[in-house]
């Protein structure tokens, strides 16, 4: 009974905190709208308002703001990057790609734009371009755990499991306690029937604070391996 009551209290608290956070975002958005009424051509204020729209997942409103910013400042890197992201959320992949490419002309070799473009191409089934771009990203940023982990994810999806294991290991050398990378590598080890390595990663996750309940499906897969 006490456990159930405690869980109920936690649920109510989480719901209250979420509602408070949402209200704070809406209040901040309302303030930005009021400020824009006095300074309609302010790029800074429009970017600020668009950021609140993104936080609230108001994708169309955010896109409209980024459109306005880019009319005022056609080469604004922040507006190009975030409009590319928003267009992805709206399923407008071709427009998103154009924004990433525009940004890369302005800021060649930008990490976020290169990563965004690679992930976009992978998501929209431009698989060859995606792999070429993620390979370039790793070459340009060999000390980035994110670059290795994203390439590993693409390799895993393509059935290139040995390469995926290598890249997740490289990512973990750079970011040793990243639970997402550990869980992903454990998944790859399970697919490769490498039981001992998979168990080591899962046990390491438990040691790092993740509950066995959260990992129950992975441990069930582990038991099925001979």
Gist of the model:
This protein is mostly helical and 226 residues long. 80% of the residues lie in helices and 0% in strands.
Topology, please?
Layout (H helix, E strand, L loop, with lengths): L1 H37 L4 H13 L3 H14 L4 H13 L3 H14 L4 H13 L3 H14 L4 H13 L3 H14 L4 H13 L3 H13 L8 H9 L2
Taking all residues together, what is the mean pLDDT? Answer: 86
Number of helical runs? 12
Content-based structural category: mainly alpha
Gyration radius from CA atoms, angstroms: 22 Å
Main sheet makeup: none
Protein model, in words:
It is a single chain. This protein has 226 residues and is mostly helical. The protein has helices spanning 2-38, 43-55, 59-72, 77-89, 93-106, 111-123, 127-140, 145-157, 161-174, 179-191, 195-207, 216-224. It is elongated.
List keywords for this structure.
mainly alpha, 226 residues
């Amino acid at each position: 009974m006490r456990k159930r009551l405690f869980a109920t209290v936690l649920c109510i608290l989480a719901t209250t905190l979420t509602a408070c956070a949402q209200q704070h975002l809406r209040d901040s958005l309302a303030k930005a709208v009021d400020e824009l009424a006095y300074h309609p051509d302010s790029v800074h204020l429009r970017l600020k308002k668009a950021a609140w729209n993104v936080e609230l997942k108001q994708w169309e409103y955010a896109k409209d703001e980024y459109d306005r910013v880019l009319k005022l400042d056609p080469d604004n890197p922040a507006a190009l990057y975030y409009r590319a992201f928003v267009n992805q959320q709206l399923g407008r992949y071709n427009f998103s790609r154009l924004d990433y490419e525009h940004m890369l002309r302005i800021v060649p070799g930008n990490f976020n734009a290169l990563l965004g473009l690679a992930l976009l191409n992978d998501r929209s089934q431009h698989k060859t371009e995606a792999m070429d771009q993620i390979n370039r990203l790793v070459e340009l940023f060999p000390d980035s755990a994110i670059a290795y982990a994203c390439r590993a994810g693409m390799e895993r999806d393509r059935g290139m499991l040995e390469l995926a294991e290598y890249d997740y290991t490289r990512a973990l050398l750079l970011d040793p306690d990243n639970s997402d990378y550990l869980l992903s590598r454990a998944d790859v080890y399970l697919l490769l029937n490498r039981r001992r390595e998979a168990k080591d990663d899962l046990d390491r996750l438990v040691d790092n604070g993740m509950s066995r309940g959260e990992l129950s499906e992975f441990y069930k897969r582990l038991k099925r391996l001979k």
